[in-house]
């Protein structure tokens, strides 16, 4: 049976959105970029598996999706797991599935406290548990290259035996004809083919390096945007607090804060 926790948003112990998202991605080796993306419900399902192995069927979880129908199914499985563990918490499934920040942020704050109260420190391999499925918001084709590992179709395995073509009496006959044609064409063809292959490899390496650089810059930009939103929201809270105070009760500090906030430079 799980340890129930009581949560209230009026506490200084709550983590920021950046810290919470980093905790989820670090724990599950996932690639969620925003708190809103936890609306998929997949992270909650696997975090429950971390706490209580076997409390739900991970094979039924849609780990990488952007379809609301999948969100609802994942969140219902999560709710059933909570019920099974006697947790007195109603999951706001419909609101979470809409992907609004505030709903997902508040619920994630509660779940982090619930996780801390129930985690026993055991080792857990999240990628192996979900059979190397990618985890993030979207589909495998929309994820970053690092997220698409182990998601491509398996390559056919060659038997290592030569293929006998129609008209050939055996494999050596086909090879002999090929050698005669290569000899007639001259050694220059082989040199040109080798140079072309080498050039193709260099091009592919360059493309891979540039793609990795683009992905890294995109992540840095995302982190900057998250930080900007976080501190902007803090300023809005400060502004609202000051403006709610009666004019006659505002001291010099409030006036100075408003002067700094409303300054043009």
Write the layout of secondary structure elements.
Elements: H1 17-28, H2 42-51, E1 64-65, H3 68-84, H4 93-97, H5 101-118, H6 126-129, E2 136-137, H7 171-185, H8 187-244, H9 252-261
Parallel strand pairs: 1-2
Helix pairs in contact: 2-3
- The residue fraction in helices comes out at 55-70%
Number of strands: 2
Number of helices: 9
How do the strands of the widest beta sheet line up side by side?
A: 1-2
Domain EB1 C-terminal: 199-265
Family: Belongs to the MAPRE family.
Organism: Anopheles coluzzii
Region (Disordered): 141-202
Description:
The chain is mainly alpha-helical and 265 residues long. It folds into two domains: 17-143, Actin-binding Protein, T-fimbrin, domain 1 (Orthogonal Bundle); 204-262. 56% of the residues lie in helices and 2% in strands. It is built from nine helices and two strands, in the order ααβααααβααα. It has helices at 17-28, 42-51, 68-84, 93-97, 101-118, 126-129, 171-185, 187-244, 252-261, and strands at 64-65, 136-137. A two-stranded parallel ribbon has the order 1-2. The radius of gyration is 28 Å and the shape is flat. The two termini are 56 Å apart.
Can you give me a brief rundown of this structure?
This is Microtubule-associated protein RP/EB family member 1. With 265 residues, the chain is mainly α. The protein contains 9 helices and 2 strands.
